[in-house]
Amino acid sequence: MDVTAGLAAPCAAAELFALVDDLSIYPSWLDLVSRARAEPGAPPTWTVDLRASVGPFARSKRLRMVRTEHDTVRHRATFERRELDGRRHAPWVLEVEVDSQPAGSEVRMHLHYGGKLWTGGVLERALTDQIEHGRERLLALTPPTH
Fold it and tell me: What pLDDT digit, counting tens, does each position of 38-84 carry?
């Protein structure tokens, strides 16, 4: 499953990037991420709990996500699933990029999931709905330009 989404915001690129380069902030604006707790050490790592509901059914998943790219000049970050249990796991990769625009900035996010449990049109529609609601909440967190 590959999902791409974007958002234009009336703030500087660095300000918008600060809201998307730390997974701990995601629960405040994206319902899919019910919890994201930073782990100590380097590279920056988070334990992330995902939860999606479709009608009476719900799916949840806990992931260990590591920030594998962090470019504060180009405003790019990549997060990848990296478990420590020695088993093979389906890949989860989130790529985030923020660009300056005449009226502020724009973020583009691409989520790749390479497994089978979270696929299917119904879950993809649920994710799309959550992204739409998340856009409004993320936008509400951005500081206005002066």
Answer: 999 899 999 999 887 777 777 788 999 999 999 999 999 999 999 99
Q: What is the DSSP letter of 26?
A: G
Alpha-carbon distance values, 70 to 52, 84, 123, 132 (Å): 28, 22, 29, 26
112 vs 7, 12, 94, 140, CA distance in Å?
A: 18, 27, 6, 26
| Tokens standing for residue 141 | 């967190």
Largest CA distance in the chain: 50
Contact 142, 9 (CB under 8 A): yes
Whether 142 has a pLDDT exceeding 80, the answer reads yes
Residue 88's Cβ-count burial label (10 Å; 0-12, 13-18, 19+) is exposed
Place of tokens 């420590």: 84
Instruction: Answer yes or no: are the C-beta atoms of 112 and 92 closer than 8 Å.
Output: yes
Q: Are 89 and 83 in contact (CB under 8 A)?
A: yes
Tell which residue, 146, 79, 77, has the closest CA to residue 112.
Answer: 79
Helices 121-141, 13-20: crossing angle, 10 deg rounding: 130
